[in-house]
């Protein structure tokens, strides 16, 4: 069922195009000045040549994307390409972006060209009547919770920010992901397309990795006396956020290998693991332990043993490096988890927040306006917990809706994983469960946020994983309906003879 009647589509697309044109005209007047200043600063910094090349190359990729959309009209390929070039469009934010919010420390939250491309693709599909709303009841319930969450989040920001900031923070923080949700649910209609979606996400991480290496001019993290210098995360945020999403992508790569058994996935796994070590993020590294949940599913136990065997080989081959990593970060085997200094800092942050700063609020303080809490070293920092951060910025209602939304997706995946038929979909659901649990773990033990401070491109990984459950159910229903139709077409109905006619003859 189309989301908007045909009579209204042309009007809708007209106003959207006009809106984009106005935004573009407002920004283009600043572009020439920005390009010159950015190039000057880039060339004077480490890896500056690479930064300039990326900046100049970004328009080429964007033009190619527009060609696929408007000329080739291959909308799904355009979506996959856009995900792959997330790191490039992220870089382009330096030239073309909306400054949605500036905090007291002069941090600027930008809505980049990535968001505008998503809006363009959604608008085109909407105008052509290709945005569909399946009749799947689970899908509909998920959709309603998602929309209620987005509307409530937007309303809370209207009370805390100027109209301009509230709108753009809401678009960047949630509405662009809703657009992605409708695009995915309309175009990703088969298991093979789901696999292609995950491959595009791997492409995103790989391109980001290459850009990081060339920009920072280092493959591995550097050690300076007793301290390791973490790598940057580029379009996937700082190291703590980057490490968490790398953990999720390791799980997704394992699923792709589980489905295809292609050797290049093993190479990618090694690269992702090395990059994870480079982030120097304990929470993300510990999140890998949740892969052990595979033993809960009978069909996956054999596969878990294979993973475990490979992991042992890798650890034996790189044992010295990994041991140094663990030892330096305070995770030696004889250490107790609550004796770790960083863990105690996070526990103290939560305790201090609830004892001294907690205030039951319906609207929160506004996105980006964190309650700063003095840690054990008397340094004011926000709470390193996604749930506390969401409550702090948007209030209790938004927090409750988010927990319901997350739980709904998780339980949908659990239900799908228990299906004995359609093993491909049930196997995928198992890995999605693990990925969601991994995200929840590292997001509540690090400073990862969904709405502020971290690139929206990185948050898209979480939202896409969250959206997969209702999409899988739609694919399953489509399969069943095709099967029923096929059976029905092959049934030969008996010829019924009218008894009265036969008697009269």
Q: Could you please describe the fold and organization of this structure?
A:
The chain is mainly alpha-helical. The protein has a domain at 135-479. It has 19 helices and six strands. The strands form three sheets. Strands 1-2 form a two-stranded antiparallel sheet. It has a two-stranded antiparallel sheet with strand order 3-4. Helix 9 (239-260) runs antiparallel to helix 10 (263-279). The model is unreliable at 25-30, 331-340 and 486-505 (pLDDT under 50).
Q: What helical percentage do the residues reach?
A: 55-70%
Give the total of beta strands.
Answer: 6
Question: SSE order, as H and E?
Answer: HHHHEEHHHHEEHHHHHHEEHHHHH
How would you sum up the global shape?
A: globular
Strand order in the sheet with the most strands: 1-2
Distance between the termini: 51 Å
Question: Mean of residue pLDDT?
Answer: 77
- Helix count from the secondary structure assignment: 19
Strand share of the residues?
under 5%
Residue windows where pLDDT falls under 50 for at least 5 positions: 25-30, 331-340, 486-505
Structural class: mainly alpha
Biggest sheet, open or closed, and with what strands and sense?
A: 2 strands, antiparallel
Rg, Å, rounded: 25 Å
